[in-house]
Queue: 2 jobs
Job 1
Amino acid sequence: MLALTAPGPGAAYEVVTVVDGGAVAGTLKFVGTPPKLDPIPVNKNRDVCGETHPSEALVLGPDHGVKGGVVLIEGVTRGKAGGGDVILDNRKCLFIAHVTALSRGDRAHVKNSDTVLHNTHGFLGRTTVFNLALPNKGQVIDITRRLSKPGVVHVLCDAHTHMSAWILVHDSPYVAVTDERGAFRITDVPPGTYKVTMWHAGFRPKGADKDGRPVYDEPRTITKEVTIAPRAVATVEFELR
Ligand SMILES: [Cu+2]
């Protein structure tokens, strides 16, 4: 399991000036033969949303770099400021982005850029943390306070079974999502030795749920111990297979 546990009393994150910070950078690569993922049928509003959408469960780029993995440095209680501002957009009947990471307290919104109703429903485990009908194009709702607990939030659209996304809420700003090449970089890290964890949502098809949503296998995590020296870049490579 991902160690995205809530800090105990007195362990709140403290923003400080990071002196001689280092960085951790690397890539997430897929090894082996990737599964063939079927396109997902659209159940509603096909005139706007189309007939099918490609699965985003495993998105590979050049050299099998994996997009949409999340890399977190664990246990940083003092460090750089967060202050991200994330928008989870319902656009062309997809969640943009499929995977988002932020630090607890960062601003976050959901938006509808389409002319159809989307209902954006976020689950932390089995608990609903937001459930928002977005009937109007251009509508934006603030979810900052709904994301106050660290953890993995699975986002579904109650109107469209092909739509899903992930929001990882970390307990510090030391978190990044891998890009289309599978690359990540986390900067301004106080020098030290840390556990660095890669999370991926899982990608092997496991059928469908009662509503017809595709189900994939459990999220994957890989944790490595990494020493980050002052003003240096520690390289970490992760493999998904
Ligand atoms: Cu929708």
Note: Residues 90, 93, 118, 157, 159-160, 163 surround copper (II) ion (CB under 6 Å).
Job 2
Amino acid sequence: MVDTYIATDVSDELVEAIRRLVPQLSRSNPPPDRDALQEIIDSDCSALFMCRDDTGILGTLTLIVFRIPTGVRAWIEDVIVDEAARGKGVGRLLNEAAIEHAFSHGAITVDLTSRPSREAANRLYRRIGFVERDTNVYRFSPPEQQGS
Ligand SMILES: CC(C)(COP(=O)(O)OP(=O)(O)OC[C@H]1O[C@@H](n2cnc3c(N)ncnc32)[C@H](O)[C@@H]1OP(=O)(O)O)[C@@H](O)C(=O)NCCC(=O)NCCS
């Protein structure tokens, strides 16, 4: 049976799973260590969603819920399903759990971004009901990284 939950402690299983999953999303950002995972779990703004079955952890997603002058907003980040578990609805389950949590905590919108080259992700988000916004996404990097 597949179960989606919010991580509440930094177990060895969680550390191993995040170490296995993060490189499947990003090769440039090393997986968080125990302290960094604890920080995510302890934060009032973030919720580390995990999905597992009886074989182990299958995927993860991080939801951030925050208040700004225009209301409570939410962002979904770092959606990753293990290669071996893809195409079985795990990504959808994680997103649906996060959206429900965001709305039940007062969020009026849930946002995310995904590079166009991430075909599976873009298809997943559209199927769930995310609608592409007409906006530009900007990023400011430290000067030493600019232009690289
Ligand atoms: C994107 C990702 C999270 C999808 O997870 P998943 O568990 O395989 O997705 P699901 O099984 O819930 O699929 C839901 C929908 O996504 C789409 N989808 C999933 N895998 C797909 C693939 N390989 N190709 C095209 N569409 C795909 C389908 O539309 C599917 O719905 P449908 O079966 O009703 O058509 C997973 O592929 C992944 O971790 N990729 C690497 C990391 C990544 O790109 N993360 C997103 C960062 S923005």
Note: Residues 141 and 147 are 9 Å apart (CA to CA).
